[in-house]
Design a protein that fits this description.
Length: about 200
């Protein structure tokens, strides 16, 4: 088989175009595998710390802050596009409008596939941002040489037990949390999801 230009092979063996991801391309196992092997902070942290571990911790923080079931689901998948597009540092992302467009499209496809077109309230969106910032501040304090000094990120330092899960542990935690939240393993054409508005 000839691979189409611009396509990548995923863990499950699918070939997908990361710049034009469709709901039918999405598999929870691909997301969990990729995120558990992707280090945050472009690898410049004191120990390996995966995007999958970060995502589980953000979902848990949303629950601690009183977020509802839907908010927890979106929180777990808030960086899921990075399974297809990689984790770029915030300052780099902000200078790359094409990347931001692809990231937004991938997130919409992932949400359509795995969250069935659920909508996120503005309150929940703010709660996820708060949880993400709380984790950013906490992670920086523990994992970065500067401890986050001068980063200017508003957030609260929270309890942060045993950071730096091994990839297999992070993958299992991510999938387990997803299944606990009712996230399906893959998109089903028999039950097509609605597009999630941008």
């Amino acid at each position: 088989m000839q691979v189409k230009p611009g396509h990548i092979e995923t863990y499950s063996g699918l070939y997908v175009d990361p710049l034009d991801l469709a709901p039918a391309d999405v598999r929870l196992e691909d997301i969990a595998q990729a995120l558990s092997n992707t280090c945050r902070y472009t690898g410049h942290c004191k120990r390996f710390y995966s995007v999958a571990e970060h995502s589980v911790r953000v979902a848990n923080r949303v629950a601690d802050l009183g977020g509802d079931f839907t908010a927890e689901r979106f929180a777990l998948l808030h960086d899921a596009s990075e399974a297809y597009l990689l984790d770029l540092p915030r300052p780099v992302k902000q200078q790359m409008p094409t990347y931001l467009d692809a990231e937004e499209q991938a997130q919409r496809a992932i949400c359509a596939a795995l969250l069935g077109g659920e909508l996120l309230s503005e309150k929940s969106r703010k709660l996820i941002k708060q949880a993400d910032n709380d984790l950013l501040v906490t992670e920086a304090r523990v994992l970065m040489p500067s401890h986050g000094a001068g980063w200017g990120v508003p957030g609260e330092v929270i309890r942060f037990d045993r950071p730096g899960w091994e990839p297999l542990e992070a993958e299992a935690a991510f999938v387990g949390r997803a299944l606990d939240l009712g996230v399906p393993m893959r998109y089903s054409a028999a039950c097509p999801a609605k597009e999630v508005p941008a």
